[in-house]
Design brief:
Elements (H helix, E strand, L loop, with lengths): L1 H26 L7 E6 L7 E4 L5 E4 L3 E4 L5 H12 L8 E5 L1
Antiparallel strand pairs: 1-2, 1-5, 3-4
Length: 98
């Protein structure tokens, strides 16, 4: 029974750590040299990893040039989504720190 208790404790710790990490990402403002993963659901060719350059702007395929420095990951996902709406119907975009 002790191993089960240890496994449950470890699982709880992982869940708590993930929640803390997600909250930290939500408030974090992107800056130069940050690495991000942009995922466009059902459009793998538009998804990819990027490093924020010193000027803070990135050229996203089909979305155009976007200033990412100073944005949260949620704000950047919204900006990419808006850019892609010119060429895709209701794109689903997620952004995460790597």
């Amino acid at each position: 029974m002790g191993w089960l208790r240890m496994m449950l404790s470890a699982l709880c710790l992982v869940v708590v750590c993930q929640a803390v990490w997600a909250e930290a990402q939500a408030d974090y403002r992107l800056a130069s040299q940050d690495k991000i993963q942009v995922t466009v659901l059902r459009h793998e060719e538009l998804s990819g990893q990027y490093t924020v350059p010193p000027d803070g702007t990135i050229d996203f395929p089909r979305a155009g040039r976007i200033t990412v420095a100073g944005l949260t990951v949620a704000e950047l996902a919204q900006a990419v989504k808006q850019g892609l709406q010119q060429v895709l119907r209701d794109p689903e975009v997620s952004v995460a720190l790597v």
